[in-house]
Design goal:
This protein is α/β, with parallel strands linked by helices and 421 residues long. Helix content is 37%, strand content 20%. The chain folds into 2 domains: 199 residues, Rossmann fold; 168 residues, Dimethylsulfoxide Reductase, domain 2 (3-Layer(aba) Sandwich). It contains 18 helices and 21 strands. The structure holds iron/sulfur cluster.
């Protein structure tokens, strides 16, 4: 059986034109896709068959009883992850956090959390990827490398995509890359600016000043010549539709959310000359959905705590890395992410010492250290659900094959029932 227009849930591009072939409930071929996605679909069957408690295989009721006991006995539980699960499951995770008086945080806090804070400060002049495809004649990539991290972004949405007002694709666009080192993306660019590491804020501030008609009495700012900045500004002012895509090279370097607020302010000010927009390059398939779901359920996008019976928001206090590094969380439920592999050592070490439950289709590093592992179906492969693309457009994920495993949503429902009783 050939299934067309499948959404790939792997990265924030959520490409929705994949063709998957299925035989005897197994995926046998994947076409119209990238190598990352092909490997994801072809190996999505290989997770563990049974839940485990302390490394021993057990039946589901026993694993769920132990899970509920750990969470109910905890004085300061943490629920973390959410970026590779469906929004239906994210909503259940929030309900569980509310019930437990827990902290809940998504992987946003270690990638585009500063973006969200920058947007809260400055507002967000943004658009959809469809508008970029059909209209953008100037595309800037700042602190990101989509040629390697979002493999089909160039072809589907930005650099070479053919749209209504860009019928010749690449020939109709000017592409600019701003990064601290040459990358595969910068090799495709018409213009490459290479600021010194940690100098994005200075460069952006200088651009805003030059845009306002100020003159500079220095020849370079943050490693970029003023002549290059003036040239880039002229291109920005004179384009028909511009967009800056930005990544963790700006959000997780010195300045963090201040870099983003400055970038957003520059984009807003460019709208005095032309239509100019910006968009974060979101990594995980539904990390944008985690922000959206948390926001419409609680009013806040990440770093939320329910200990007082209502949601409180404070990045730095209720973010997972900080709660773990300060040894404040005494139990953790990790949903569809691998913090032991990615967190700073102090936070990861504490996570290994407290009772941890993992909901994930795969046995990752965090699962290897967890007390309870609950294997679940893969959204977009063996479970249907909803995910939000990097431009916050929600897309339906298809169920392509059957799975013996329950979904994250079902498991969270079972945990909620047990915690209540
Ligand atoms: S670019 Fe991302 S969403 Fe698109 S097919 Fe590749 S991994 Fe999947």
């Amino acid at each position: 059986m050939k299934i067309e227009n499948v959404v790939c849930p792997f990265c924030g591009c959520l490409c929705d034109d994949i063709v998957v072939e299925v035989e005897d409930n197994r995926i046998t071929a994947v076409t119209k896709t990238c190598s990352v996605s092909r490997s994801f679909f072809l190996h999505a069957h290989t997770g563990p068959a049974h839940p485990t408690v302390d490394g021993q295989e057990v039946e589901w009721p026993e694993a769920l009883d132990v899970t509920a006991r750990i969470l109910a006995d905890s004085a300061s539980p943490l629920i973390y992850g959410l970026s590779s699960t469906a929004s239906e499951a994210q909503r259940k995770a929030i309900a569980l956090a509310d019930l437990l008086g827990a902290s809940i945080d998504s992987t946003s806090s270690v990638c585009h959390g500063p973006t969200t804070i920058g947007i809260q400060n400055q507002g967000e002049p943004t658009c959809t990827l469809g508008e970029v495809k059909h209209r953008a004649d100037l595309v800037v990539f700042w602190g990101c490398n989509p040629a390697e991290a979002h493999v089909r972004h160039f072809a589907r949405y930005s650099v070479s995509a053919r749209g209504k007002l860009t019928p010749q694709g690449r020939k109709d666009r000017t592409v600019v890359v701003v990064d601290v080192r040459p990358t595969r993306s910068s090799r495709t660019a018409d213009v490459f600016l290479q600021p010194r590491p940690g100098c994005d804020y200075e460069v952006l501030t200088a651009m805003r000043a030059l845009l306002k008609g100020e003159t500079s009495d220095v020849a370079e700012v943050g490693g970029v010549s003023v002549a290059q900045l003036v040239d880039l500004l002229e291109r920005m002012k004179s384009c028909r539709f511009g967009v800056i895509f930005f990544g963790m090279g700006v959000t997780q370097t010195g300045g963090k959310y201040l870099n983003i607020a400055e970038l957003l302010a520059l984009v807003a000010e460019l709208n005095a000359y032309t239509r100019f927009t910006t968009m974060p390059m979101r990594g995980h398939g539904n990390v944008a959905g985690a922000d959206c779901t948390l926001t419409w359920q609680t009013g806040y996008p990440f770093a939320i705590n329910f200990a007082r019976g209502y949601p409180q928001y404070n990045p730095g206090e209720f973010t997972a890395v900080d709660l773990l590094a300060r040894q404040e969380a005494d139990a953790a439920l990790i949903i569809a992410s691998d913090p032991v592999a990615h967190f700073p050592r102090r936070a990861a070490q504490w996570l290994s010492q407290i009772p941890t439950i993992v909901l994930d289709p795969e046995v990752n590093l965090t699962a290897r250290e967890a007390r309870v592992v609950l294997p679940t179906a893969v959204y977009g492969v063996s479970a249907a659900g909803t995910a939000y693309r990097m431009d916050n457009v929600p897309l339906p994920l298809k169920k392509i094959v059957d799975s013996p495993q329950p979904t994250d949503e079902q498991v969270l429902d079972w945990i909620i029932e047990r915690v209540k009783t």
